[in-house]
Design goal:
The structure holds 2 protein chains of 2 kinds. By secondary structure, chain A is an alpha/beta fold. Chain A has 2 domains: about 350 residues, 3-Layer(aba) Sandwich (Rossmann fold), CATH 3.40.50.12780; about 80 residues, GMP Synthetase, Chain A, domain 3 (2-Layer Sandwich). Helices cover about 20% and strands about 30% of the residues of chain A. Chain A has an 8-stranded mixed sheet with strand order 2-1-12-11-13-14-15-16, sandwiched between helices. Chain A has a 7-stranded mixed sheet with strand order 7-6-4-5-9-10-20, sandwiched between helices. Chain A has a 5-stranded antiparallel sheet with strand order 17-22-21-19-18, covered by helices on one side. In chain A, a hairpin with a 2-residue loop joins β23 and β24. The N and C termini of chain A lie far apart (about 60 Å). By secondary structure, chain B is mainly alpha-helical. Chain B contains 4 helices and no strands. Classes of the chains: A alpha/beta, B mainly alpha. At the A-B interface, β25 of A face α2 of B.
């Protein structure tokens, strides 16, 4: 009996690699080079069977590393850029890390990992490694408080939504980009689409101004691009979108409300615009391409396709081969219930024949015992044409425990003299569409709202 | 505008927003008789904190919530500056 055939990322690259590249603001790497060049100085063999922390300063080296060590390492943990150093020790212990690939070796001088392999731009080597095993892919959740959880995936699961999404023969190869970091689930999905699905990848860089980023996206001919609604609102607000014409625009990672979908349709009239539901734990759930917020209730059910979904106690539950297989670590909780469903913690509400996301279970504001999701208020506020983005949050109250207040960013072309009128219009709309305890008691205009490194509206002080 | 006038103005504003029909606001009127629910009072206290810079009901644990409009206004007037 022959051993089960194992495919790793290098095996997915395909044969015709001409013109396919991975690039960032400083470098362009041709995928064809990767069959004879190593970014690890030819030391990939030292990582055979090891549990490897991939901790690079930028995304390009991380991407090149995973292509080189997938199929060789036992597991690899993609270290996101904002990992706090105080969490490193426990994550290293929980994941059983015994090697690190980095371009910043001084960071790992005292952390007890005996093998540190330097990574740099690819250089020719005599011999590349062969695929010998299915490497486990570990990712960190992007929760804003506490130690991030380690989530275990396989390449097969991560690519579950990609196979069948390849360009048809004769089609122009897609050039992918994302506002995400590829060391996050949403960004990794795009990176894998570019590598496995047959295209090129243009990486983002946190130090680059948005206008420069968009100019680079244009120069590289980006056709397919994804980001969170917060990323997209920022782009729409900047005025930089005018010079950009992608064919395929996707939103994920936060609730895509009708206002941001309509805003993108207006900015990119010729693009396919859709939003997808995915999470680090549950994997890619589904995509919605009808231009409307929420998703059709017909998506719920079992045995309908690759993903089974149900709603229990208001939260979306997903069972799928694309989901992670486990939380990893000494005190890791169960990832799924007894039936194999992941509780996403994303709360949904059925209105008519569609489900709408209303917010995160743990983001609820309590107003005198009544529960409020900040996102449902933001969706109403964002519907005002003069509003670009908003944040609803709780303000402490000696009477009700909390009340709802809102911060609002107006569109760049708005007339500042109309601010009071806009405020009254927004509040009138809130009163018409929301229960009294959900109407912001105070509404403040702010120049900008913080977005986390993971691309989501910052809610840490909510 | 005096503290008293600001408080009265805020009460009237919230009554309009919450569609509450206020009786004449005398010092003897109990807060219950205003028709305000706890949400309306929560909004009132928050707005007055922004306007006057104090929230007498959070400042000290000894302060009990007032019974009448007069008590309510005095709670603000008696906060040491």
């Amino acid at each position: 009996m022959s051993p089960r055939e194992v495919f790793a990322l290098p095996d997915h690259l395909g044969t015709d690699l001409t013109e396919r590249t991975i690039s960032d603001p400083r470098h362009v790497v041709g995928l064809a080079e990767l069959s004879r060049k190593s970014c690890l100085g030819g030391r990939v063999g030292e990582l055979d069977g090891r549990s490897v922390l991939v901790a690079t300063s930028g995304q390009l080296l991380a991407g090149l590393t995973v292509i080189e060590i997938d199929g060789v390492a036992r597991r690899m943990l993609l270290c996101p850029p904002d990992l706090k150093s105080e969490h490193l020790t426990s994550i290293v212990a929980d994941a059983g890390i015994d090697a690190v690939v980095t371009d910043e070796p001084e960071r790992f001088a005292d952390c007890g990992i005996d093998r540190v392999v330097l990574v740099g731009m690819p250089q020719p080597v005599a011999r590349m490694a062969q695929t010998v095993r299915a490497t486990e892919w570990l990712m960190l959740t992007s929760g804003t408080s506490g130690v991030p959880k380690i989530v275990g995936h396989t390449l097969e699961g991560l690519c579950g939504a990609i196979i069948g999404d390849r360009p048809a023969p004769g089609d122009a190869l897609p050039v992918w980009a994302t506002f995400y970091d590829i060391r996050r689930y949403g960004g990794l999905q795009i990176f894998l689409r570019a590598i496995v699905g047959g295209g090129s990848m243009v990486l983002s860089d946190p130090g680059e101004a948005l206008a420069d980023h968009v100019a680079r996206l244009n120069a590289r001919g980006v056709s397919h691009i994804s980001g969170t609604p917060s990323h997209w609102r920022k782009l729409l607000m900047s005025g930089s979108a005018e010079q950009f014409a992608p064919r395929y625009v996707r939103l994920s990672g936060e609730i895509a409300d009708q206002a941001v979908l309509d805003g993108l349709k207006q900015a990119f009239p010729n693009a396919s615009i859709g939003h997808a539901y995915a999470s680090t734990e549950a994997g890619v759930g589904f995509a919605v391409n009808d231009g409307l917020e929420g998703f059709p209730a017909t998506l719920l059910g079992e045995g309908l396709g690759a993903v089974d979904m149900k709603v229990v106690d208001g939260s979306l539950r997903i069972r799928s081969k694309r989901a992670a297989h486990a939380y990893v670590g000494r005190a890791a909780a169960a990832l799924t219930d007894a039936d194999g469903y992941v509780d996403t913690g994303d709360m949904v509400e059925l209105r008519g024949d569609r489900y709408y996301f209303v917010g995160r279970r743990n983001g609820i504001i309590n107003v005198g015992g009544l529960k409020v999701h900040p996102e449902e208020i933001e969706a109403v506020i964002n519907g005002h044409p003069a509003v670009r983005m908003s944040r609803a949050k709780s303000r402490r109250s000696p009477i009700t425990g909390g009340i709802v207040v809102a911060e609002v960013v107006l569109t760049a072309d708005g007339d500042p003299a109309r601010a009071d009128a806009v405020r009254n219009e927004i509040l009138a709309e809130c009163r018409a569409r929301l229960a009294a305890h959900k109407v912001p008691a105070m509404l403040r205009f702010v120049p900008a709202l913080d977005v986390t490194p993971a691309g989501k509206l910052a809610r840490t002080d909510a | 505008m005096s503290v008293r006038l600001r408080i009265i103005a805020a009460i009237k504003q919230i009554a309009e927003e919450q569609k509450v029909k206020l009786p004449p606001l005398t010092d003897e009127l109990t807060l219950h008789e205003t028709g305000f629910d706890s949400l309306a009072f929560a909004i009132l206290v928050a707005r007055l904190e922004d306007d006057l810079g104090v929230d007498p009901f959070t400042l000290s644990e000894e302060v009990t919530f007032p019974n009448t409009i007069g008590d309510f206004i005095r709670a603000y007037e008696n906060v040491p500056a």
